[in-house]
Structure formats: structure tokens, C-alpha cells
Please model this.
Amino acid sequence: MVPLSYYLVLSGILFACGVTGFLIKRNIITIFMSIELMLNGVNLSFVAFAAQWHQLSGQVFVFFVMVVAAAEATVGLAIIIAVFRTRETLNVDQVNLLKL
Amino acid sequence: MNPNLHLWLIPLLPLIGAAINGAFGKRFSRQAVTGVALLFCGAAFAMALWVVSQFSSLALPHTEYVATWIRAGTFQADFAFYLDQLSLVMLLIVSGVGFLIHIYSVGYMWEEGGYYRFFAYLNLFMFFMLTLVLASNYLLMFIGWEGVGLASYLLIGFWFTKDSAASAGKKAFIVNRIGDFGFLIALFLLIQHFGSLDFTTVFQKISRFSPETAGAELLTAIALLLMVGACGKSAQIPLYVWLPDAMEGPTPVSALIHAATMVTAGVYMVARSHVIFERAPAALTVVAIIGTLTALFAATIGVAQTDIKKVLAYSTISQLGYMFLACGVAAFSAGIFHLMTHAFFKGLLFLAAGSVIHALGGEQDMRHMGGLRTKIPWTFWTMTAGTFAIAGIPPFAGFFSKDEILWRAYQASWIYWLIGLSTAFLTSFYMFRLWFMTFFGDYRGDLEDHGHGASHAGAPAPHGHGHGGIHESPKVMLIPLMILAVLSIVGGWVGVPESMYGANHFERFLAPVFHSTTSSAELEQTGATDGHGLTGEGEQRTSYTAERLFTGISVAAALTGLYLAWLLYLRRPQLPQKIARSLNGFYDMVLHKYYVDEFYATIFVKPLIDGSRTILWHGIDQGVIDATVDKSAEEALDVSDTVRHMESGNVRSYASWVAIGAAAVIAYMIWVASR
Amino acid sequence: MLHLILFSVFGLVCVGGAVNLLVQSHPINSALSLIVVMGSLAVEYLLLGAEFVAAVQVIVYAGAIMVLFVFVIMLLNAGEEERTKGSRVSLLIGIPGMIMGSVLMAWVLITHSGTHAVEAGALPGAPREIAQLLFHEFLLPFEVTSILVLIAIMGAVVLAARPEPLQPEGKN
Model:
């Protein structure tokens, strides 16, 4: 019997790893992967709560999250390709023309 | 019930003239401007005469209510006009002499620029002055009071492109305002304690006070504050400094405003408030002392002046001192009598001086005059009448009024009489000095048959006209001179005292006004008796003798002044220089008017300007108000300059900010939820 | 008991994969770690009885999205990240920060949330039940997400398309 809080802790750790990766990594693709990691952590907590409250809506919501994540990954990677064409680099520190 | 005399029309007519000339005068021809100005001023005078004709059938005092102005709680002030013997006398003087000076100005100012502006201002002045004398409450009187100050400023600075004239106008207005401040506080005290500013109401309430009750301090305070206002308006110590500078204005202005009418407003106000002053003996003493000192002080300065208008200016201050001395010994009708005769002869003297200046093409320095008696005879004879009148030589007008004052002053204290007598001697001396220097001896100027001459302050621009040299003034200027000369001769005959077998009509005429409700015993204590000794038969004859003796002494003083002036300025003209040199330091001080202006400049003006510049301008205006606005703008700039570093273009820093913000929000939510 | 063991094992695999994602410098290694994470997460879902979600996780997430990532990495020939001073600093700050944050969060969660135990397979998420919900209560979001996907496809096509040369020398 696993207490709910264990699942939440695991979810939290995954989310924290995602945030950390988002902040410390310089490769755009790695940053996107960190975002996916964050979303996965959240998905886990949705399912955990669905199991606890016996509501299937949690799982349905996970479904939607995945769809949105897919769409976002698609468009994001397309943008990365477009940026790579002009800037010739995947280092996010060098994509800084939008500054004041 | 009195018939409605429509008194409100009397001030209104000149106002209409001022409005027409002010708004449209620029497009009118000179004749049209003249017509408008003279028409409305003359109409006011004509109405005044008509009021005189109706006067004997009136129950006095006659008040006319026109409209309510202020109604605030229990306090009410109306546009209402008041007629009694005192205001009738003032009305006639103001409108009559004013009208004559309007006529004179037509000739004097004919070739000046801004002709229409002059007459607009002059009519405006008449409006305010007539409001002042006809007002039935202090507030309406204050409107007139302030307004004549304004008109004085406008007219003194008539040639405003000249720095000295503009400064003189400012000085006059500012010094007047200092006096007005005292006047205002007196009004506030009146409202606070008597709930009204209406003459009838206030005087009735005050007459229930008696000098021994505690009300005396209040009344003394009010009276002294009113006197401050009078000092400012009527150029007494310490607020007289504006009047000599006011000679920068055109000569008719000096005649009308600074001799005959505006400066007498203070005397009128004190006389009107006699109910207050009589119950504040301390204030009366102050008034008398100020009057006496001013009279002597100004006379000493007048002796050393070389500008003909400055001599007359100091003479005016001195004669006003006499009027205040009269009021200070509660001889109010004597003061008003002198006010009337002074209006005649001082107005005449100024106008005649203007005629001399006009004849010489702008010259005002008496050292460059002389021997003009044959060249401008009409001016000479009229000025002679004025000079004899002011010196107090019988039977001219000034003699009777000045003598009355000296006699009443003696009854209060011999010191007043002695100083007054010395002043009379000095007056006679410097006036005859002026007379001799201007009209007798050899001509010391440099006018040949051309029209050149130094262009001085207060004179119209040099004419450069074709009629040669020193010429008599045109008739339009001479006729008012002649009328005023006649008045200077006969004007005193309405006040011939009983000691000289006259009936003293003037004093009897004004007696109902100055009749107070205190007992005659108290009146004697303050020396405010009917000074011709009507307290008993036996005493009557002895005081007549005393009175005649004193009269003789004052005539002797006047004649001595005449002799001395003749001696020093005609017979032995080199003597004055020697005397001046031997009195070196003292003469210098007198010549520089005792350095009073310099003293005021150091003590009051300079600290005020410096303080104003440093504290108010640099400190508060620039340092606080401007700085607040500027600094807040700068702060906004600085803040945004700092914050803009957030927009670095670096995506990771954006991400970190988002993460930090999210963490903070989540922490807050957890904290709230766990409470 | 088995439940707990399975949970712990695959939980550790998850965390290990996540940490490896952070540690690796070449993006392809990070992508492979992420696939490991997704796989183990699918097992966790199974433990919670959400079999449909687990299947979708493997098929969509690990099978489509991650493949897309790998393709892009291959296409762009992304190299290893360099170690610069800035990256050392961020590692120095970020790792301890993350550990601290995790510990704090874990402590809060364990002490404050209920200790309700969740049974293995507590809520059977059979496709039939999920479909019922999906096409009845959640019909609108379903349709909207389908439009979202459509837009995403169009956007991706447009953004990633090679720009047509407007002028022979002109660069877009």
C-alpha cells in the first residue's frame, strides 16, 4: 500500500528536475525536453489523484495534457529549426536579439 | 421719507466714461475722447450740484439702498450710499476740483501719446473716489479706497516705458497696500465685535460704549489700525515715502490725486470714524503726534528741494499732517475745513506748476527758472494766489483753516501749537522760496526762442513746436487756474471764526455730523469742545483775546517766512549756498530726505527681495515644487533604467524570473492554506 | 508489499533518468534518458490502474514525441554543450537549489497531505470508461484539442519549411 504522498513526492521531484534543467541548460532542445519532463511529473500527480478520489476525469485530463504537449513540442521544434537556419547555433544565450 | 436722489448715478457716470474711453478710445479722435471724458465727469458734478439743491429738504443722514452684496449668516453688506453734511462737502470737492482738473488736462496732455488712456484712468479714478465718499459702509468705502490706489498706480506709471515712472507706481501701490492691511484688520475686528460694517449700525453700537468700560482697548486697536490705513493712503509717517516719487506722473495727476482728493481719503475716513476715535483717546493722541511730526518733518525736507514738484509734494505731506493733527485733537470740522481749502490751493499750485513746466518745455528744476513773472503773467498771478493761501496770510483761504487748527491744537497742548507754528513758518518760507526762485530775479535757464528744454519726469515730452520759447499756456489750462485762484481767495470765508466777527458757517454746517453722544463734560476733558470758548460769557471774551493773539503770532510767522525767502532768494542770492555749506552735514541729510528711503531699502526692501529670491524662489519654487516634479520624473527614468536590464534577450534569465515568481506565489499559497 | 517495491524501483528509475537528463551534456543522451523516464512512468500508471493512460504514454509520448526530438537532434547535428564559466556557476547554484527545493517540498507533502494509501490498481481505467467520459462530458475539449492539433500541424509545416528564395541573393 503506497501512500498518496509518495506519488506526489515523485511527481514533485520530476517537476523539480524539469525546472532545474530548464534553468541550467543552454541547448534549446534540452530545454524543451526539460519542459516535457515537467509535464510528465504533472501527469503523474493527476493520475494519482484520480486514483485516490476515484474520479476518471483525472485520467482524461492526462490525455489532454499529452495532446497539448505533443502540439507544443511540434511547433517548438519547428521554431527551433527556423531559428537554427538563421543563427546557426543551438545555444540559447546567443539568441538574444530581442533585448532592450 | 427722503426722495430717492439716485446717488448711485454719481459714481457710475464717470465709470461709464472710463469704460467707453478705455474700450473704444483708441479709435476715437482726440476731440471725441475729450468729449466723452468731460461729459461724464461734468455730469457727475452737475448731479452733485443738484443734490446740493435738494439738500435742505432732506432728513439726514440720508441713505440709499441699491442692492445687497454679501449676506453671510448675520453679516450683511450692501451697495448703499450715504449722504450727510460731511459727504456732501467731500462730494463737492471731489467732483468740482476733479472736473476742473479734467478740463486742465485736456490742454496739458493734448500732445501726449495714450491720450485716451489717460482720460479713461482719470474717469476711473473719479468713479472710485466718489464711491469712497458716498459709501454707507466700510466695505464699499474699502472698494473705493483700493480702487483709488489702483488708479493712482495706473496714473503715476502713465509713462510706463520709463523705469522711474513704473517703479514709482509700484512703490505707491505697495506702500498703500501696507496701509490697507491695517485697514482690513480693523474691518475684521469691526465685523467680529459689531457684526456689521454699516456706518449707522456700527456707530450706534459703539456710542453705547463709554470710555471707561473695557471696550476702550478694542476701540483703540480698531482706531489705530484705521490710522495705519490712513497713514498709507494719506502719506503720513512712516508710509509717506511713495508720494514724492509719485511726482513721476503727469502734473494733473499730482494735482488731482496727490493733492486734492486721494490723499485726503485718509482724513475723510478718520473724520467719518470719529465716533470710534473719540472713544479711544490714546489713538487720538497717536494721530495728533503722527500728524504733527509729519508736518514738521516734511516741511524741513521741502526747504532743500530743487524740483518744483517735489517741493509741492512735501508740502502736501506737511499739510496732510496738519489735517491729522486737527483730527487728533478732535477738531474734525477744522480738519475737513483745511482739507477743503487745501484742495483749492494745492490743486491750484500743482496746476500752475504744470503750467510753468509746460511753458518751459519740460523744465522742472527751479534753479533753471527765474524772472518768469513777465513772461507768463496769468500763471504768475494765479500761483501767487495759491502761494499766499498756503502760507496762511489773511484773507486768503489757507489762513482761516490753518489758524483754526493751530488754535485747537494749542487747546490740547502747547507743544502741538509750537510745532505747528514752526511748520507754518517753514511752509511760508519754502513756498515763497519757490515763488521767488520761479518768478523773480533773472532767468537762469537756457531756453531761448526754441522749444528745447531738459525733459524731466512728470513733464510731457518736449514739444519742439513752432511757437517760440517761453509761452503762456492755452486758455483751456488757464481757466481752471483762475477758478481755483478765486476759490483760494474766497474759499476760507465760509469758516471765519467768531473771534474775527465771522459766523463760522462751515463748522456749524458740519456740527451735526461730529455731534457725539458723550456728555459735553467728557468732551471738554478730551479737549474736543467747540473751541471758541462757548462755555461761558466771561471766558468767551478772554479766549477771544487769546485767540486773536495766537492768530497774530501765526500771521507774523508767515510774514517772517516771506521776508526770509525774499532775503535769501532775491536780495542776497549767494547766501543760501553759504548757509548750506556751513550747515554741511545737516543740510546733506535734509537734501537726501533724511535717508529714509535708503533706510527702508536696507531694512525692509532688500531683506524681503533677498528672502523672496532665496527662500521662496530658489528654495521652495525651484527646490521643492519644481524639484518634486522633476525628481519624480528622474526617479521614474532611473527605475525604468534599472528594470530594463530584465529585458536582456537572454531566455534563461526570463526563465529564472518566471521560476522565482512561480515559487513565490506557490509559497504564499501554501502559507495561506496552512494558516 | 509488492506494490511498494515495484513503486520504489520504478520510481528510482524515473528519478535516475531525470537526473541523468540534467547531467548529460550531449542532447541525444538527454533524449534517451527521457525515454527511460517515460517508460518507467508508464509502469507507475499501470500500478495506479490507469492502463489506457499507460498505453497512450508509451505510444504517444515515448513513441512519437521523443522520436520527433531525436529526429530534430539528428537533423540539426547538435553537438555537446561546452562547459563555460556560466554553466559551472549555474550548476553550482542550481543543483543544490533543486535538491533543497525537493527536500522541502517532499517534507511538506508528506507531513501535510493525508496518508491515504492507494491500492494497486485502485481505479481501473479501462478504455471503455474513459471513452464514455471523453465523448460525453469532455466532448468540447476533445474537439477543441483536435483543432489545436490541426493548427499545430499547419504551424509546424510553415515554420519549418525551407524559405523560398524571393531574390537569388536575398537571405530570408
